[in-house]
Amino acid sequence: AQSVTQPDIHITVSEGASLELRCNYSYGATPYLFWYVQSPGQGLQLLLKYFSGDTLVQGIKGFEAEFKRSQSSFNLRKPSVHWSDAAEYFCAVVNSGTYKYIFGTGTRLKVLA
Amino acid sequence: DGGITQSPKYLFRKEGQNVTLSCEQNLNHDAMYWYRQDPGQGLRLIYYSQIVNDFQKGDIAEGYSVSREKKESFPLTVTSAQKNPTAFYLCASRRAGVRETQYFGPGTRLLVL
To answer: Which of the 8 DSSP states describes residue B60?
Structure first.
């Protein structure tokens, strides 16, 4: 069965520090992968997505993610975190047969001033 | 301005009462989804609809019902059979094809009185 694992429930970083959020997936075929961000009490906003091609994808707000098939990973990175990046981040994969999206349990990011 | 609207933002349910959450989209998307979000559990799929007049159960459909009479609308009813309805409910629609993406509404928080 398809699944997405985000091993870190909480991450705390200082403002200006670099960030990496981990995502591992289990999917038989070539995956369509997504990262979303959610502020408290809000809906989810798409940060970036990977379908094929260049394994390093750029997104909004200065985020990027790298697809590594050999590691079944799609980690999200940002070189310098801003206080406004504090939120919850979700990794997702879509089943290309049913078009059901499978989400990880999320990583909550706290940013220290 | 295209998007997904959900109403109300907060909803209170009394014991034994059915309540309906509204979801409307003007993105011209065929597919729509309902998710339930509880702390630490990510997003769980309740129901989804790939086309008008058709819908399928997701992973946690018990105690919920939906209809899809119009392309723009996908209301969710939380019935009295749902014994633990307190949660944040998110509606989404899906853009299909080469630009495959799921977009989310702002959510409805349901509380039990």
So the answer is: T
Q: What's the confidence (pLDDT) of residue B1?
A: 59
Tell me if the bond preceding B85 is cis, omega within 30° of 0. Answer: no
- Give alpha helix (H) positions in chain B: none
The three-class DSSP label of residue B97 is helix
Pairing of strands A44-50, B31-37: unpaired
The residue of A42, A44, A46, A60 whose CB has the most chain B CBs within 10 angstroms, and thus the best one to mutate to test that interface, is A44
Is residue B65 helix, strand or coil? Answer: strand
pLDDT in tens, B59-68: 999 999 999 9
Query: Nearest residue of A to residue B90 by CA position?
Result: A43
pLDDT in tens, A73-104: 999 999 999 999 999 999 999 988 888 999 99
A-chain CB neighbours of B88 within 8 Å are 41
What six digits make up the tokens of A33? 């992968």
